[in-house]
Specification:
heterodimer, A: mainly alpha, B: about 65% helix
Chain lengths: ~300, ~290
């Protein structure tokens, strides 16, 4: 392209995006990092306290070390890779049925993700409702599997499992669509060539042809899976109707952060939790990048 | 070709070899659709069916009573439901429209302009795909307070306008447009604005449809701004109003269940309709969604 030296038109086109991007994404991240080194109660001006917030997060916050961190990791490790692998398998299987049927099935599978778990929490609270009119309780009692209704959403034993189930249910989102179109766009000649080169079965075909041919979509799907997983943090509070959740059983980092930031007004401490959370998200995405990223 | 017995992707017609996929795809789809189908039935149940024991999945005598209750109801501070719905519709329309313009403009610059920071900006944006807004709720709150946006209608709109995933998808899509096309237009004396509105916009319609859907889902379902930044009931959104119905329905308190189900339906149906209308465009965009 011939380049005009006085052409600044790109800033005209980029300007609005950069303005909103920096104001509502870059600045809050930066401010969060700065705040995490301070004591700030939202009334007095923040005072610099160095690494104290991080030190107490690791050494003194028993709830964080005993409940929040294990909860977040369990949740993330099941929902993230679980939802991701499920998305891929579904996309792969869907690509092999005729178009009309595929469109209908893909729509059904995608639809739960449209409403972002929390909006559908009402359905789940009714299904898992604690008395005998709750659907699950009623069904299990009728089948004779249960004698007394279970307080599903108030029980520390079940809350986490239900959160995982609900989040997985709603996790076939944009990443799933990207993978579906990725599978569909692989040139069929690549498969034929693969069989000539000695691929023997479906499993080898998926590992050696399908996945490598759609690496960019696999990476996009992985990043979406990581983000979706950590964004789903509000689900426990939405289901149980309380922050903190019963005995902290469904408490994730996002909830802990809101608990300190908006309920206890320890903003500096909450900011330290945000920074740790962002690092965790970044670390998870980095793994995805390692697996599927193409190095130029 | 006829000797090839490997995977047949994107088959044109049904073959019995596809049965093995359908055997698990169909039950799974049914299972996934169940909660949604359930909301449909629940929203139309009369009161005696809502609290029937044992509870029934299907509705027997459908009624619009729940919707009537919902629309007729005003909350404790006297704000009618329609006010929340009106707020949501206005906010959603503005956000979707502006997000499309802002992302497409930025996508055009990042794809077709040559300048120094181009690569860096795109890389920062790709990094921002990982951004989890909930993680920075605190500094965001302080910033919004600083900007004087608390209790301001704009607080529902401004924070949602920069959508990294939207810019990402539209940029990848504009990359497919040949540079020669733009060069030719330039030789004919077309201005930048002209190229943008007459060439880029029509060619990236699928990407625009996709941004529209994603941004719609984001803003329509968002409760963050109403929960944290707005105290004035009259300025809150429908999704927030719905979440208050939900919390009443939690645990054993079943009152408001029918209304909550009717409200979820109102939340869900627009998502569904928009996606059905635009799904082929979305799939077209997703083909270029890969991160390289």
């Amino acid at each position: 392209m011939t380049k005009n030296k006085r052409d600044f038109s790109q800033w005209f086109f980029l300007g609005p995006y950069i303005l909103f991007f920096s104001t509502f994404i870059v600045v809050p991240v930066g401010a969060g990092i700065v705040l995490s080194f301070t004591y700030f109660n939202a009334i007095e001006a923040p005072t610099f306290i160095g690494l104290s917030n991080y030190v107490s997060l690791i050494t003194q916050d028993e709830v964080f070390m005993q409940k929040i961190l294990p909860n977040t990791l369990t949740f993330a490790l099941i929902v993230g890779p679980g939802g991701y692998i499920l998305s891929f398998i579904l996309a792969w299987a869907l690509a092999q049925v005729p178009k009309k049927l595929r469109t209908v099935l893909a729509l059904i599978i995608y639809s739960p993700s449209m409403t972002a778990g929390v909006a559908m929490a009402v359905v789940w609270t009714i299904i898992f409702s604690g008395d005998q009119t709750g659907y699950l309780n009623s069904m299990l009692i009728t089948m004779g599997l249960l004698l007394e209704p279970i307080q599903w959403l108030q029980s520390p034993e079940y809350l986490m499992k239900i959160m995982i189930l609900v989040t997985l249910w709603g996790s076939m989102g944009v990443g799933f669509l990207a993978m579906l179109s990725g599978v569909l766009n692989i040139n069929s000649e690549i498969y034929e060539a693969g069989y000539i080169d000695g691929i023997k079965n479906r499993f080898q075909e998926v590992i050696y042809i399908t996945i490598p041919s759609m690496k960019p979509q696999m990476l996009f799907g992985a990043v979406m899976a990581v983000v979706g997983t950590f964004q789903a943090g509000a689900i426990g509070v939405a289901l149980s109707g309380a922050n903190p959740t019963p005995q902290y059983s469904g408490q994730l980092m996002v909830n802990h952060l809101e608990d300190f930031g908006f309920i206890r007004y320890e903003m500096g401490y909450a900011a330290a939790i945000s920074v740790v959370l962002l690092i965790v998200v970044y670390a998870f995405s980095k793994v995805a990048w390692r697996l599927f990223g193409e190095k130029d | 070709m006829s000797a090839f017995h490997g995977t047949k992707m994107n088959p044109s017609k049904f073959h019995k070899s596809q049965l093995k996929f359908l055997v698990f795809l169909i039950p799974l789809a049914v299972f996934m659709a169940m909660p949604i189908v359930y909301v449909f039935f629940h929203a139309f149940k009369p009161i005696d069916e809502l609290f029937a024991y044992p509870p029934r999945f299907f509705v027997q005598k459908p009624t619009l009573q729940n919707f009537a209750d919902l629309f007729g109801r005003a909350n404790a501070s006297g704000v009618p439901m329609s006010r929340y719905l009106f707020n949501s519709i206005v906010i959603t329309l503005i956000v979707v429209f502006l997000t499309i313009i802002i992302s497409t403009m930025a996508g055009y610059a990042l794809s077709k302009k040559e300048f120094k920071l181009k690569k860096t900006i795109f890389e920062i944006n790709t990094l921002a795909l990982m951004f989890v807004p909930a993680a920075v709720a605190i500094p965001r709150y302080l910033l919004i307070e600083e900007l004087g946006l608390i209790n301001n209608f704009l607080v529902h709109i401004l924070p949602l306008l920069a959508m990294p995933i939207g810019l990402f998808l539209v940029k990848q899509f504009i990359d497919q447009i040949p540079n020669e096309l733009i060069e030719a237009a330039k030789l004919d004396g077309a201005s930048d604005i002209h190229i943008f509105t007459k060439i880029i916009i029509p060619l990236v319609k699928p990407a625009i449809a996709t941004i529209a859907i994603l941004s719609f889902q984001l803003v329509w379902n968002s409760v963050e701004s109403s929960t944290f930044y707005v105290n004035d009931e009259g300025l809150k959104t429908f999704s927030f109003y719905m979440s208050t119905l939900t919390s009443q329905a939690t645990g054993n308190v079943v009152a408001g269940q029918g209304m909550a189900a009717a409200a979820s339906l109102i939340m869900f149906v627009p998502n569904l309709i928009i996606f059905i209308v635009l799904q082929s465009q979305v799939m077209n965009t997703m083909a270029h969604s890969g991160i390289k």
